[in-house]
Amino acid sequence: MNKQINVTQSSMPDFSEYVEEIKELWESHWLTNMGAKHNQFEKELQEYLNTSKIKLFVNGHMALESIIGACHLTGEVITTPYTFISTTHAIVRNNLQPIFCDINSEDYTIDTTKIEELITEKTSAIIPVHVYGNICNVKEIDRIAKKYNLKVIYDAAHAFGETYNGKGVANFGDASMFSFHATKVFNSIEGGAVTYKDEGLTDILEGMKDFGILDYESVPYIGNNSKMNEFQAAMGICNLRHLLGEIEKRKLVVERYFMWLKDIDGIKLNRPQEGVKQNYSYFPVVFDGYRKTRDEIYDSLEKNNIYARKYFYPLTTDYECYEGRFHSQYTPIAKKISKQILTLPLYANLEISDVDRICNIILN
Ligand SMILES: *Cc1c(COP(=O)(O)O)cnc(C)c1O
């Protein structure tokens, strides 16, 4: 049997580098609650993302849930169902009503021509997703948000470190959420962050992730507990040192996939967007009119011990927890793409010969 290939493999520093990084923790005995590693990592990320304000969280989901809560949104929020379930959960868990807008079939981000018709007097925000690292139509979203006085919070979990027309992705909208989960292009084991513009959110976000505690005798917010610990931050510090090299290696994998699959009838690849410096986080392929279906390709890969992912299938609206509440027939393009999409294995240490083997299975 061929070796198992998964859709991703976590980037890790050398064991000795990580050990060196966490050594000080045995001296300080300070393991969590905004320790030295946490603060160093936060500072490094602020520079890397080229943003003025950032707060770290235990994971991306809690970062998103917390920033939505901190913005005191009400009523309805416009978002897309073509995302990881976290985006929809974060809205619903804040007692808001998600209103699902369709995606466009070019880059799978929110179709900005369909946002305005969904706006009502109850709408308070737009929460779009830079899916697969494809940057949303930020200019148009900005125009709509200004016109209707809406907040914009980006789920930028896939877009870490990218730039658009030279501007860091963290600088669009009112806030952006990033995920440093083990399966992402950059990881701190688990981890996440919020970047934001309004200085007034600083205290709320800090309180939010620490039970709403301001000081020992004051708890002004009903917070959660989502602080990033020192071991996570240490992993993030190490991985950040090597990130550019990892992205370069991912790029070679993506170029190899393109070489094999770019001119095949019925296979649609995720084309690079103009003006975007990519992070090569995912390699989604749409099988539309190909001689095999997405599910058949998925099965043949699996028989060869290769585990691609149907990412994103099903739509978040179609999970059983939302049965009878949300309806995917109003987002037909998202529905169609979700049945045709397959995300192929992509990680820094994926061997080019394995890419060749994967493509050979798809093509033959
Ligand atoms: C990974 C991810 C999240 C959640 O991030 P975690 O760090 O895993 O909590 C949210 N949205 C999207 C689009 C993601 O891919």
In a nutshell, what does this entry contain?
By secondary structure, this protein is α/β, with parallel strands linked by helices. It contains eleven helices and 13 strands. It has helices spanning 15-22, 25-28, 36-48, 60-70, 85-92, 138-148, 201-208, 230-261, 294-303, 332-340, 352-363; strands at residues 54-57, 76-79, 97-100, 123-127, 151-155, 163-164, 167-168, 175-179, 192-196, 267-269, 276-277, 283-287, 341-344.
- Order of secondary-structure elements: HHHEHEHEEHEEEEEHHEEEHHEH
**Low-pLDDT ranges:** none
| β-sheet strand percentage | 5-15%
| Integer count of domains | 2
Number of strands: 13
Layout of helices and strands:
Blueprint: H1 15-22, H2 25-28, H3 36-48, E1 54-57, H4 60-70, E2 76-79, H5 85-92, E3 97-100, E4 123-127, H6 138-148, E5 151-155, E6 163-164, E7 167-168, E8 175-179, E9 192-196, H7 201-208, H8 230-261, E10 267-269, E11 276-277, E12 283-287, H9 294-303, H10 332-340, E13 341-344, H11 352-363
Bound molecules: pyridoxal-5'-phosphate (PLP).
